[in-house]
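Task card 7
Instruction: Convert sequence to structure tokens.
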Amino acid sequence: VPTIDFCKIELKPGTIQWDSTKSQVFQALQEYGCFEAIYDKLRNETLEAMFGRSKEIFEFPLEIKMKKLVKEITLQWLHREATNITIVCIDLTLATFNVVKSYTKPLVELDEMVKRMVLESLGLQNYIDQFLDLTSFLLRLTKYKAAQDEDIGNKPGICDYTDGNFLTIISQNQVNGLQILKKNGEWIDADISSNSFIVLAGDSFMAWTNG
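Output:
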């Protein structure tokens, strides 16, 4: 899986670093459908806190998990003034909600950078702001059951699938298990470091670029 560095200070639209990274992003998504993004805006303590709080969420009783509470978060970042993210969740404690907010903000920034690069590569510069204004975000926490001893290494945790959205950003709790299907039909492991994320092209992206 290609690795792309998003930690450059000069990574802004119109710069040499931006154009170079943009080329890497578009090529990786076309060839592999994904890439590993090295991104240091999400601090390790926030990442650890998020995974710690996720255990609290998973342990909530089923009747509480079935109750939905809608909250809006206003975020600000580099290229746009502000956006509202609607989080549909169970009734979290204030501390947990603040952790979710801190965790989400840098990932939204990364998502926007990648989408901006893709749209520029497609020659759609005039539609970037309109597209981003219509973008919605979903934060999903997923917990997979551990395989039984006899199944380890022989049986997948879940069946293969594709995401229907435009982009998916995956963060793993230092338990690697994600595999990517290459164009030649080969499955490859996507092992990432603690400050990296897997960025996946969804079905919508594939449709925009004709596969």
